Each structure stands twice: as structure tokens, then as C-alpha cells.
UniProtKB/TrEMBL annotation:
GO terms for biological process: FtsZ-dependent cytokinesis. Residues 22-102 are periplasmic. Essential cell division protein. May link together the upstream cell division proteins, which are predominantly cytoplasmic, with the downstream cell division proteins, which are predominantly periplasmic. HAMAP family: FtsB. Part of a complex composed of FtsB, FtsL and FtsQ. Belongs to the FtsB family. The keyword Cell inner membrane applies. This is Cell division protein FtsB. Residues 1-3 are cytoplasmic. One of its GO terms (cellular component) is cell septum. Its main location: membrane. NCBIfam families: PRK00888.1.
Length: 102
């Protein structure tokens, strides 16, 4: 009788091994759930970035305000009959003028 009990206990342990430590076991499922959560978080960040870029594309296609803003700040362009004034801080060097003599 004791032999049968030991054999059944051993069989029970052998059946439980794949459930806990096997390829599709509970420990592996926990690891995969963490990976899925990280991937979903990354995807949400990418969705927000894509929405922002899509909004910017629509602004550039539909309105002239965004184009004008980019031209002003990135290309330093000004409108006709407009005066450009740049204020330098104390630690910034003065720009060289064309008529300055060394």
C-alpha cells in the first residue's frame, strides 16, 4: 500500500512539472504578461506621437499659420515691410556687421 501511495505521489509531481516549469507553464505566462504590458505601453506612446504628427501634417496642409510659423522660427524669414529685431543676452556675443572694420 505504501508503494502505491509513493508511486501516485510521484506521478502527481510528474504531472505538475509541465504546469509550473514547462514551456507553457505558469511562470512563463507571468513573464509573457509582463512583456505584453511593456509592449502595450510602448504602443500607446507611439500612438500619441503619431496623433501629434498627424495633427501637424493637417495644419501644414490646411492652414498657412503653421507654414508661416515654421518659416519664421526655423528659417528666420520675415514678411515684407517688417523689421526683425533680435535681443541678445549678456552672455551672448554681438553679431558681426558687414561694414565693421577690424
Amino acid at each position: 500500500m505504501r508503494l502505491i501511495s509513493v508511486a501516485l505521489a510521484l506521478l502527481l509531481l510528474l504531472i505538475q512539472y509541465p504546469l509550473w516549469l514547462g514551456k507553457g507553464g505558469w511562470l512563463r505566462v507571468g513573464e509573457l504578461e509582463k512583456e505584453v504590458a511593456a509592449a502595450q505601453e510602448k504602443n500607446e506612446g507611439l500612438r500619441q506621437r503619431n496623433a501629434k504628427l498627424a495633427s501637424e501634417v493637417n495644419d501644414l496642409k490646411d492652414g498657412t499659420g503653421a507654414v508661416e510659423e515654421r518659416a519664421r522660427f526655423e528659417l528666420s524669414m520675415i514678411k515684407q515691410n517688417e523689421i526683425y529685431v533680435q535681443i541678445l543676452g549678456k552672455d551672448q556675443a554681438k553679431p558681426a556687421t558687414a561694414d565693421a572694420k577690424p
